[in-house]
Amino acid sequence: MKRQHGLLLLPVALALSVMGALAYAMTRGAADDASAVDAQYELDATRYLAEAGVRLAKWQNEKINCDSDRRFVDVRLPGVAGTMTADSITIKKKDELDITVTARSARGTVSTITREKMMFYDRTQQYDMVLDDDDDFRDTWINSNAPATSYGDSSDMVATDGGAHPLLSVDLNNLPPKSRVTKATLWLYLSSSNSVQTVRELAVHAVSRSWSEGTATWNSPWNTSPGGSYEVRPEWVTTIAGTNRFYRWDIGPLMRRWQGGELANFGMLFKPLGLNDARFNSTKANNNEPRMDISYHKRCD
């Protein structure tokens, strides 16, 4: 009887053994996976730290002058475990900077990043300029109610929710060569509006296709659908309240994308929300025309 009980228990014992082996394998595998994840995390963390060191080295040297090659050793970022060291900084030309930075994690993982021919700007002095001439801008508006009509000669730029989009571009050739925009504020004057909605906004979007002031319409020359070809994400959104006043849009990041070649300069489209027949002065108006305040640094030369 005991032998029979033993035989009956044998499958149970074998099953328990298999389950134990599987549990051990899974635990060991989980431990190995956790170690791999930890190692990858350490590597990624030191790479990000090294990249931060490159930016720090560039910023530190730009804040001194164009002849500097300042390095640093074992710098820590608040809240980040590990250190970064600027091992090598070379100025081949006054406007090109080569930087090598090594980062070390708290556990000893090391990552090194080298950046060559980085553009080098003089941050010791900021320059300001105002663009407010007709030659600085070109503008028009496009109208869904007259989809084949051009308004390039209009003294207004009309914004209506779902019905009219102003278009405006700025000539970057008026900026000094080898400069980097730090701030750009566009000002438009609202002369009249029939808007009564509670929420009234005007968002500025980067245009993704070339257009002409004299020929752009609601239907043409856009890539896919009428109403303009533009990036979905707005660069800036401004709340619109009363009339007979200027409104502002901060487009410094967009200007830097144009300058750096990340995005072709096809100008801006203004997409309204809750606006009806809101009329902004164009460059053809007799007063209160569009203007832009720009601050910039010169590239080292």
Keywords:
alpha+beta; disordered N terminus; 301 residues
Q: Could you describe the 3D structure shown?
A:
With 301 residues, the protein is α+β, with helices and mostly antiparallel strands. It has helices at 2-64, 252-260; strands spanning 83-93, 96-104, 110-119, 127-131, 137-143, 156-159, 164-170, 179-192, 201-206, 236-239, 245-250, 268-273, 278-281, 291-298. Strands 4, 6, 8, 11, 13 and 14 form a 6-stranded antiparallel sheet that branches. The chain has a 5-stranded antiparallel sheet with strand order 5-7-12-9-10, with no helix packed on it. The longest helix is centred in the N-terminal third of the chain and has 63 residues, at 2-64.
Itemize the secondary structure elements and their pairings.
Blueprint: H1 2-64, E1 83-93, E2 96-104, E3 110-119, E4 127-131, E5 137-143, E6 156-159, E7 164-170, E8 179-192, E9 201-206, E10 236-239, E11 245-250, H2 252-260, E12 268-273, E13 278-281, E14 291-298
Antiparallel strand pairs: 1-2, 2-3, 4-14, 5-7, 6-13, 7-12, 8-11, 8-13, 8-14, 9-10, 9-12
Question: Tally the helices: what do you get?
Answer: 2
Strand portion: 25-35%
Order of helices and strands: HEEEEEEEEEEEHEEE
- Molecular shape: elongated
Radius of gyration: 30 Å
Cα end-to-end separation: 99 Å
User: What about the largest sheet?
Assistant: 6 strands, antiparallel
User: How many strands appear in the DSSP assignment?
Assistant: 14
Structural class by secondary-structure content: alpha+beta
How would you state the average pLDDT, rounded? 87
Helix percentage range: 10-25%
> Low-confidence runs (pLDDT<50, min 5 residues)?
1-18
